Fold this sequence. Notes:
With 123 residues, the chain is an alpha+beta fold. The chain is built from 2 helices and 10 strands. The site of iron/sulfur cluster has 11 residues, from helix 1.
Amino acid sequence: MSEVYEFLCIRCPKGCRLKVMVEEGRVTVDGYECLEGKKYGEEEVKNPKRIVTSTVRILNAKYPRLPVRTAEPVPKDKILDVINALKGVVVKAPVKRGQVIIENVAETGVDVIAERDMECVEK
Ligand code: SF4
């Protein structure tokens, strides 16, 4: 018995429509225009992943919250764990874009990083 899934590839703005077929454990992907899309289609049926974005509290900065995100996509079933790990995190300015805020968040093997620079502001 085979199953067919349809996804919109989100790896680039082109948004190719993917058709993913699973038959006896074998996965085939149609509709991609590059290998990133083929990989995305395979992952969506085997182990779907997403980048998680959020904010954490920051002290001594112009704004009270620092935008952060996972450096790589994490498995969908770990998203809640990642969000919970970010609760109560407080960092101090200055922070540089790409700076690691949490290493190996929720045991995913992926770091949470700062999305932007945040200068130190004297108060
Ligand atoms: S298949 Fe390739 S070209 Fe198409 S949306 Fe995905 S990444 Fe972009």
